[in-house]
Write a structure and sequence with these properties.
about 180 residues, 10 helices
Length: about 180
């Protein structure tokens, strides 16, 4: 009836937990593991399930609302970030484009964390992003400022707002003094 699905790689969790949450029939950590799974054979699924059957948290539609609002959220956050983070006013076109891309990724990871109901998807991404910003000589507290702005726009999405607040708190709790600086 259905087609078996093998999901692979770290994006599905180091143990494949997100692959299972998303309904994959099997998971492999890498290409060799996927080849072994395929060689062992997969049974053809006999029943068709809807995502809400396995992911009841999706019934609140917060994932859909955040994903569909992505463009607006990024644009509004970028505009307000320029007001609240004065160094951004000096950014050239390339830096502004990188900042918009970073904000788009933040919203994408927020939506993904909502979809799989896993805050660590969002918080781990934020930690990685803070490290990337540091490498670019961008103060990571700008990310906290961006999250504060984003949270202002998510007041109608309590589950999303909660994830953003947890993410901002974890970044603020990091030992990196640049992250814990007072935000304008």
């Amino acid at each position: 009836m259905g087609v078996p699905v093998v999901a692979g790689g770290r994006a599905f969790g180091v143990d494949g937990r997100y692959a299972r949450a998303l309904g994959a029939d099997a998971w492999a950590p890498d290409a060799r593991g996927a080849a072994a799974v395929l060689e062992a054979g997969l049974a053809r699924p006999t029943n068709v399930r809807q995502p809400v059957d396995d992911l009841p948290h999706l019934a609140d539609q917060k994932y859909n609302m955040v994903a569909q609002s992505r463009g607006r959220l990024v644009k509004e956050t970028l505009t307000e970030l320029e007001r609240r983070f004065p160094p951004m006013r000096e950014y050239g076109d390339a830096q502004r484009e990188r900042t918009a891309e970073d904000l788009a990724h933040v919203v994408d990871f927020l939506a993904t964390a909502l979809y799989v109901d896993a805050v660590e998807v969002f918080t781990e991404f934020l930690g990685w992003t803070a490290d990337v910003l540091s490498a670019r000589n961008v103060p990571p507290h700008s990310l906290v400022t961006g999250l504060d702005i984003l949270s202002d726009r998510l007041h109608d999405f309590p589950r999303a707002l909660s994830l953003v607040r947890v993410g901002a708190a974890r970044l603020t709790d990091r030992t990196d003094p640049a992250v814990t600086d007072t935000v304008v």
